[in-house]
Amino acid sequence: MENLVYNSKNAWSEESNDKIMDFSIGYKEFLNSSVTERKCFQNVEKMAIAAGFVCAESMSSINPGDKVYFKNKNKNLVLAVIGEKPLVEGTNIIISHMDTPRLDLKPIPLYEDGDMTFFKTHYYGGIKKYQWTAIPLGLSGIVSTKNGDVEITIGDDEICLCVTDLLPHLATEQMKKTMMEGIEGEKLNLLVGSIPSDCETGKFKQTILEILNKNYGIYEEDFISAELEAYPLLKSRDIGLDKSMVGGFGQDDRICSYTSLQAILELDKIPEKTALCVLVDKEETGSSGNTGIKSMFFENTIAELINMQCDNYSDLLTRRCLSNSSCLSADVAAAYDPSFDYAYERKNSCYLGKGLAIIKYTGSRGKGGTSDASAEFVGKIRRIFNNNNVIWQTGELGKVDGGGGGTVAQYLANLNIEVVDCGVALLSMHAPYEVSSKADIYYAYKGYKAFYEEA
User: Fold this and answer.
1) Tens of pLDDT along 172-195?
2) What is the pLDDT of residues 41-100, one digit of tens each?
3) Of 116, 251, 386, 398, which is the most exposed, with the fewest CB atoms less than 10 Å away?
4) Is residue 376 part of a domain?
5) Beta-strand pair 418-423/425-426
6) Are strands 91-97 and 434-437 parallel, antiparallel or unpaired?
7) CA distance 175 to 173
8) What whole-number distance in Å separates Cα of residue 169 and Cα of residue 165?
């Protein structure tokens, strides 16, 4: 008799375990070198070029099988494999984001106090502030000076920065506060030095400015036109005695960026519909700005592609293309954590090691801020995964009144695109060190590849 009961499967099996382990090696390398969205952009562009993708700026027309990419302000990329069908009949889109929660330097960051020098920061995205104290931090980004742009990376095996915390012996008052109040945003200051430039006058800030000027040619005023991001100096590693998991910073959402990227790089046949890998910025702060998905860059890219394919371009063709398109919003899901059982509803939770997660809706409480995918589209995605032996699961973001969050799916839905959230479940999401299952990483790649080919 046919089994009528839905049971999510464990993704580990003897026939796929070697593939799962091997696939995670490249992912960890990517994660370690993609510590900011700019670094991630650079890595993706190099990988795209190595796989035969050509920058669209050098092309005037496209044909089925062509591999092209578009870039935007060193923070966005769209990779396209042109399909057999005209673009007006729709595309298959997988979108993920390259930004991740972190600490950004303020425009005027440098100050001295207590015979030490600090950088003031403004945290980016949703973080638990106490998690960012007393851990090694690096600093990376760009400074735009009068002589041009300078890339800065501070932090390696020999040097790091950190945010200090209060010793428990004196923390009686601090520990009476809630976890939200224990560390204030204005106290997330990076310790950067303690040697005075002049022992008599005790000018500590000057020492750091002299080092920065010598090493990078920058002045204090240059911080006003800088984007410098502090990130945990915590190398990605295997977790567990069985090496079944990956621990690392920035897995939300570089885990989906990497798997969707690998899927399009390894398309071995011309897809029926054009496949698009869309990598964006600013998701963690609401997708606004000219590098977020709410900017015109994505729509402009669709228009450019249609213009390269058609003799008589019109805006109506772009609108038809969008309306006929399908999209996976490739963002991470919350994995069930038995240590915090009270936050989850077990029957509708995602689990580590049970494959790629289909999330029909996100949002908070009464489904606020979600696109809520249609039954028909979710059914279509299920069939694609089942037909291609992709192990998958489903769930939602914790208990109904427990909180919540959103993704870029709602903004794609606003363009009349069929879209559903589909990503990898994480433990400790938004922490400086997140945890994923290698099996889920592999099946994300496999599922995304099947979507590109068959949606």
Assistant:
1) 999 999 999 999 999 999 999 999
2) 999 999 999 999 999 988 889 999 999 999 999 999 999 999 999 999 999 999 999 999
3) 386
4) yes
5) unpaired
6) unpaired
7) 6
8) 12
Q: What is the dihedral of CA 300, 305, 308, 314, to 10 degrees?
A: -60
Whether residue 286 is found in the same domain as residue 409: yes
Q: Is residue 237 part of a domain?
A: no
CA distance 103 to 31: 18
The rounded distance, in Å, linking the Cα atoms of 384 and 450 is 7
> Model confidence over 29-39: pLDDT tens digits?
999 999 999 99
* Domain membership of residue 47 as a residue range: 17-100+249-454
Cα–Cα distance, 264 to 258 (Å, whole number): 10
Tens-place pLDDT, residues 421-436: 999 999 999 999 999 9
Can you give the CATH number for the domain in which 25 is found? 3.40.630.10
10 part of a folded domain:
no
User: In 98-183, which ranges are E strands?
Assistant: 102-113, 116-124, 137-145, 148-154, 162-163
Query: Does residue 21 register a pLDDT over 70?
Result: yes
Q: What is the pLDDT of residue 381?
A: 97
The three-point CA angle 272-299-93 to 5° equals: 35
Binned at pLDDT 50, 70 and 90, residue 451 comes out as very high
Specify whether 277 is located in the same domain as 352: yes
Same domain, 58 and 118: no
Q: Are residues 210 and 154 in the same domain?
A: yes
